[in-house]
Specification:
Elements lengths: L1 E10 L2 E12 L4 E5 L4 H4 L1 H11 L8 E7 L11 H11 L11 E3 L2 E2 L5 E2 L4 H10 L4 E5 L3 H4 L6 E5 L2 H9 L2 H4 L10 H4 L16 H13 L3 E4 L6 H6 L10 H13 L15 E2 L7 H5 E2 L4 E2 L1 H4 L4 E5 L6 H5 L2 H6 L1 E6 L2 E6 L3 E6 L17 H8 L4 H5 L3 E4 L5 H6 L7 H18 L13 H7 L4 H13 L4 H17 L7 H18 L1
Parallel strand pairs: 3-4, 5-8, 8-9, 10-17, 10-18, 11-14, 14-17
Antiparallel strand pairs: 1-2, 2-4, 6-7, 12-13, 15-16
Helix pairs in contact: 2-3, 9-19, 9-22, 22-23
Length: 514
């Protein structure tokens, strides 16, 4: 007897619906599996056999053939265990075919028959909805993740016996039939972390302003300063002033975490902008994503959020150079034997560094680094990477008067965030229907449309372009930062004072890198 069970698989960041086909017939007893399977999938036949035995299901001696399609796609992981077990039971007549109609099944089986969580449930259920699948049977641990998607009935099961009873719809089970999981935003959205606040930072008003501008337009920012000047403290508070994630952005970010297997059972959605701070010893593969079958790396996990790289020159040169493509294209491409994968990488880079190996240049009373040592240290950040950073600001040493005079007078994150949100609302209205969300995303061809300069502003930019010997990218970045400053000031037109402030954020890289 033949059976066909719908299941799902993840390929890169995308998901596809797969089909487990099972045929049971007379012949030499055994289970044969085909369809470009890796070792984890091939071993499923032993897990399924033992799980069925421990669920007190007797399989008659038959020749069972299992095929997982599409055949050209490499299958990996243990998520096919439960659909294979159900397919076998349908093919030998222990579960009616009507029970699996328009039903997607996903889950890993333990030897005792327990159904364990799997990764990639969110994008798979999204795909199931698109393909008009009515019901999804998932591990209990993945239920809240799947329930985020509406118009699909989500059924959570703890073990194989419960799955069989549900699909059979036997008389004794009808009274306690498993109830579909409810989709409620209270289960999806968490609270805001109030443990950090901008009000805790004394002094550094110039850096605070630069960070506010960067947050309003989602611009990349680099902070230079001696040790202890508050660079890390400022960076950790940037998420508290960023605009809230929209529902679509929540789904984007949560999909990446689901594919990476990092979406915990306690929550169904990532509702706050991610903040990732990798150590400088991180490998290129961990940063970009990789593995035999690639999974998202730190860069992709920071999508729609902040990637904080402290002590930037201490990162490996190749790791820093990996940033070139995602900073420009908002994507990262990974090629492996099993195919090419594209992961989203639209993040806000926040980098911090010392101006020299000891950290105290240009204070020669404390800095003993030679000119050659300083030049070598700064050269670890290449020109192409530096050119892709919108805002470069200095964080000077804070004196005792700044530390004590400002106590209780600093603006709280909520106040700064309100201004950022107003600027974000102006951008939202301006870019409605264009696909843009922030000023930093503007492509060169659209800058003339959305960042118009008057005659005086254009003449000023032409003079700056010549004097500072700017690249075309740097020229456009100054205009985009000026557009953000104008949004913060509530101005529809970019004025010369906005350009002047934007230019200041490009002078610091010239000061140190010359």
């Amino acid at each position: 007897m033949y059976s066909r069970v719908i299941t799902g698989a993840v390929r890169g960041i995308d998901s596809v619906l797969a089909t487990v086909e099972v045929d049971a017939s007379k012949g030499m007893p055994g289970i044969e599996m085909v369809g470009q399977l890796d070792n984890a999938v091939r071993e499923a036949k032993e897990r399924v056999r033992v799980a069925l035995k421990n669920a007190f299901v007797n399989i008659p001696p038959m020749r069972i053939t299992v095929s997982i399609s599409p055949a050209e796609m490499r299958k990996e992981g243990a998520a096919y265990d439960l659909p294979i077990a159900v397919g076998i039971l349908v093919s030998i007549g222990l579960i009616p075919k009507e029970g699996i109609r328009d039903t997607l099944i996903l889950g890993e089986l333990g030897l005792d028959g327990a159904v364990h969580a799997v990764r990639g449930v969110l994008p798979i259920v999204q795909k199931a909805k698109q393909e008009h699948v009515k019901r999804c049977i998932l591990p209990v641990s993945n239920v809240q993740e799947g329930a985020v998607i509406d118009a699909v009935e989500i059924i959570g099961v703890e073990n194989l016996s419960e799955t069989i009873a549900y699909l059979r719809e036997v008389e004794e089970c009808k009274a306690q039939k498993i109830a579909p999981a409810e989709r409620t935003l209270l289960q999806c959205f968490g609270g805001t972390d109030a443990s950090v606040d901008f009000a805790e930072i004394n002094g550094q008003e110039t850096v605070k302003r630069a960070v506010e501008v960067a947050a309003a337009g989602f611009h990349h920012v680099l902070m230079l300063g001696p040790p202890g000047s508050g660079k890390t403290m400022l960076a950790k508070r940037i998420p508290t002033i960023l605009p809230d994630l929209s529902m679509d952005e929540c789904l984007e970010v949560s999909t990446i975490y689901s594919v990476a297997g990092k979406l915990g059972s306690s929550g169904a959605l990532i509702t706050e902008r991610p903040f990732l701070s990798p150590h400088h010893t991180i490998s290129e593969q961990a940063l970009a994503g990789g593995g035999r079958i690639p999974r998202p790396g730190v860069i992709s996990l920071a999508h729609r959020g902040v990637l904080f790289m402290d002590e930037l020159p201490e990162f490996r040169h190749n790791a820093v150079e990996i940033l070139r493509q995602p900073l420009e294209d908002k994507q990262i491409h990974i090629a492996r034997t099993y195919g090419s994968f594209v992961y989203p990488a639209d993040f806000m880079l926040v980098a911090a560094m010392n101006p020299c190996p000891c950290g105290y240049f240009p204070d020669r009373s404390r800095c003993n680094c030679s000119e050659a040592e300083i030049k070598k240290y700064l050269s670890k950040i290449s020109g192409p990477v530096l050119d892709r950073i919108d805002v470069v600001t200095e964080a000077p040493r804070v004196d005792i008067h700044q530390l004590t005079a400002a106590e209780g007078l600093n603006e709280h994150s909520a106040v700064v965030k309100a201004r950022v949100m107003e600027a974000r609302a102006r951008q939202q209205r301006r870019y409605q229907g264009t696909g843009y969300k922030f000023n930093a995303e503007l492509r060169a061809g659209d800058i003339r449309t959305f960042c118009k300069l008057d005659t005086e502003g254009q003449a000023m930019m032409e003079e700056i372009f010549t004097i500072m010997n700017l690249s075309a990218r740097a020229y456009h970045k100054i205009i985009k930062v000026a557009r953000t400053i104008a949004d913060l000031e509530g101005k529809e037109d970019i004025q010369t004072e906005h350009i002047s402030e934007a230019v200041c954020y490009r002078k610091n890289d010239r000061k140190y890198w010359g």
